[in-house]
Give the backbone structure.
Amino acid sequence: MKKSAAIIFGLSLLMISSCKDDPVTPPPVPTVDLNCNFSGEINGAEFVLTENVLGYTHSSTKEQIIAVFPDFSTAAYFSKMSSPTLLTAVKIGLGSISWNANTAPSPTLTVFNDFMNTNTNPVYSDSAEAGFEFIYTDASDREWRSSQASLNFQEVEFTITNQGSDASGDYSSFTCNFDCYAYSLNPDSLAILPIPVYHIDSISATNVVYSGWFER
């Protein structure tokens, strides 16, 4: 009888020990799938930037102008592909959201998502203050910007491909198709004597397809 009791007691300890040793699997952490690439023609020449090739990666920023209520604050969002080893880069901007900064330090997620979903065909706007802007930095580090006053043909269309959140932030992924001209002050124009003359050069960006994301 004592032997049977000892066996039962030993089995009980084994079962308790086994229960304690069972690993606890944590629930999966949600992550948003984010990808970027840029393709098109710059001045008629094929131009492609691919994520993780030649060091190219994506970054998203925003520019907020905080106003004192009753004036509304504004936020414009930017998406950029650049490399730490090369000067050539591309950047687009979309703006802007108006909101009351007294109630929230930034636009809420609902306002952010609604803005992206409803601004699929924005006008061109300098500094993305009220629409779309394209910025191209060439291999000599010269910056070219689209212009809201351009007389050349220009159009843009966004397709929102995903909106999601994870531990790192809230994102709105897109595919952006556009055609435009970009402009830059000729660096030699101001050196013309006796009277400096501003001379603006232009380049074309055509059949552009840019996939990226904006972060709230």
The helical segments are 2-21, 109-118. DSSP finds two helices and ten strands in the chain. Residues 34-215 form one domain.
